[in-house]
Amino acid sequence: MSISLWLAAPLIGLVLSLFAAGGGMIAVPLLSFGVGMPLKQAIAMSLIIVACVSLIALLYKKRWQLIEWKLHRFFAMGGMAGGFGGASLGLYMPDQMQAIIFAVLVLCVAWLMHTGWMKSITANAKTTPCDCRLSVLAGLGTGFVTGLLGVGGGFLIVPLLLILGVPSYQSAVAHSLLLIVSSSLVATLRYAEHLQMTWHPALLLVVLAVFGTLLGNFIADRYSTKHLQKAFSLMLTLMAGWMLLKVFNLDY
Fold first, then answer.
1. CA 155/CA 137 separation, integer angstroms
2. Going by fewer Cβ within 10 Å, which terminus of the chain is more open, N or C?
3. Chain-centroid distance, C-alpha 243
4. Mean pLDDT, 10 residues at a time, over the chain (252 residues)?
5. For residue 62, what is the DSSP state?
6. Contact 112, 152 (CB under 8 A)
7. Where are the alpha helices (DSSP H) in 93-131?
8. Domain boundaries, the chain
């Protein structure tokens, strides 16, 4: 396994533990354009890493105790169906188109993080009864993005959960982590049906990513994430620009 992967895997876990999102947005370009892994295999590998790291982050500090299971059940049903559908489309979509959609999504997330939209949504969130129909639809949409692009979708799931009636940001993060696990695993299995997967490197990457998660938890407990979010949004912008340069062969 190359030195690039040894460095990339802990970074994926670090980002996910700090922001409950963003691991896949780092993993896919690093695995594909940085290490040279075929895009669809990088997406499948990203899904494995994100699912495992999300589970570790969920177990940390017993976050599952914050989950409202009725809301989660319906959101998860939609998320798994969406993950399967997104992966099915991703398998047959040209790599260039898939990479462009990924880069555009990353740019949008970087801009939203820079504007502080999550803080606004958290401040205005109201506790309301669960609307199961909306939960299923929200799960379908976020799961589809997960399966198509190999990202966990926490940047979409957390605000949607707050809008749907989850009472606090921390509770929304806990829901998001568990939802990422289920939809990512379904999408991984769909990709694995059609791709030649090498599981031993994936397991090693998961272990390295978990070390990154532990470091991220250490940082999150001691420092405000306000400035970290600004830095992360800049990093996402540079990552997306680098991806687009690679896709269109403009790096020379």
1. 16
2. C
3. 17
4. 66 70 76 81 86 81 76 88 94 92 88 69 61 83 92 81 79 85 91 78 76 74 65 79 80 46
5. G
6. no
7. 95-115, 117-124
8. 3-100+118-223
